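Quick one:
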Amino acid sequence: MVDESKSKVMSVVKQCELLHLSRSNIYYAPVVNEHKLAIKEEIKAIFEEIPIYGAKKVYHQLKENGFNVSLNTVTSYRKELGLRAILAVREPISLTQANIAHPKYSYKLTQLHHPK
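Output:
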């Protein structure tokens, strides 16, 4: 939005003031962390190859591949990438529902009182 070629018409300072920007935003060039990008690409590759791996197994696979990274870093990178292990696990059986085939018996001892 700030055009330095038009600085003769309006200075960069004035353009920044009108846009409510700091001048440091104009001259800042973001630094790209190549190591972080390489780790994220490797995590994606591992996920595409074996999607059932969780963070611990991905961490061990990265260690085998020569990346020096912590388990917490792997977990946070997977969260940033939106990767979760795809598990083929069936839902647990609900044990709280009665089996209709079994007979129900009433509790006969409710009338008895225990002496204290």
